[in-house]
Amino acid sequence: MISSSQPEARVVHQLARFVTKEAIALLLNLNPEQIYRIDCWQYVIHVVGKGVSTFVSYADLPPILGAKTPTTKDFLRWRKRWRKHQYKAPGFWVKFYEQKLNTAPSLAEMYRWGELLSVIKSVLSEAQLRRLRSLYAQKKQAMENFQIQLV
Prior knowledge:
Elements: H1 21-27, E1 35-40, E2 44-49, E3 52-57, H2 72-81, H3 91-102, H4 107-120, H5 126-150
Antiparallel strand pairs: 1-2, 2-3
């Protein structure tokens, strides 16, 4: 009798909930359309795209809206990865959040991004945090002024 092969139990990394095509594209300086496949493995992410086949660490990707809020264990995983950055998030995170704040379609979504940033502010450097707060204030004011003009 030939035994049928049972698929192995798939262990998913806790930070896999933050994996998005947009974040990986920005990290790798690609357009999202240039990414063909993203495989979430137990310890790394395998990305295949136009002219690229590479591995990405889960700890390189920033938290997003719609996923469970980062936990203490998530912060420990990030800090372990970021020893070379003095335990602070890489500059890519600021670019990612700037892009999200710039493309937020409403004040409600801007507010949600602001709440997420307040949760992760401990992993951002003072300069990064100042830059994101400034952009948040500018965008919020612009959106509020636009809504007043519509009324």
